[in-house]
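Comment thread on ticket #2218

A.B. wrote:
> Attaching the input chain for the structure job we discussed in standup.
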Amino acid sequence: IEYLKGDFRSEIAVTGTPLRPQLNGSTNMQKGELKFDQLKDPLINLTMTIAMENDKIYFQNVGAESEGKALRKEGNLFSQLFSSNIKKGRVSLKGNMEVVSFNSFIYDLALSGENFPIAYEYMDLSGMADFDLEIEGKTPPKVYGKILLKQLDYEEPFGSPVTLALAGQKVADP
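C.D. wrote:
> Ran it. Output below, let me know if you need it in another format.
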């Protein structure tokens, strides 16, 4: 996470031991913004209602939007043809997590998105997707579900080793 900001209110009592922490309380956020390091666009209008009881964390209402500004780049044919039709993407999370230890959890979460824009920060890869994913089990959890790619763009610089190799041309060894 690169940053998290917004109107935040939290009341949490932490008890137990470092190996078996106990959390009791709640966390609420309105008008939040969350930026993941790997994605160009932040999540905006983030709302969270999270309750904690002993070793359980309940995600009662977590939702956000993404404007997909990174998809609207100059020279992108999709952006030029459909820029007026691009809606804010939505994402929501529901379910719970059990705290097993400081860095170990048991997950039972549902993550859904609609018209969700994806623009990767470290390469020219972008797109838009609908998804319904289940995140279950012990750390690391099993993630499964459906992802519908509505748009996917990958641009490779002209003359790069990848482009030359795909064109069947010999690529010099590094």
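A.B. wrote:
> Thanks. Noting for the ticket: The chain has two helices and eight strands.
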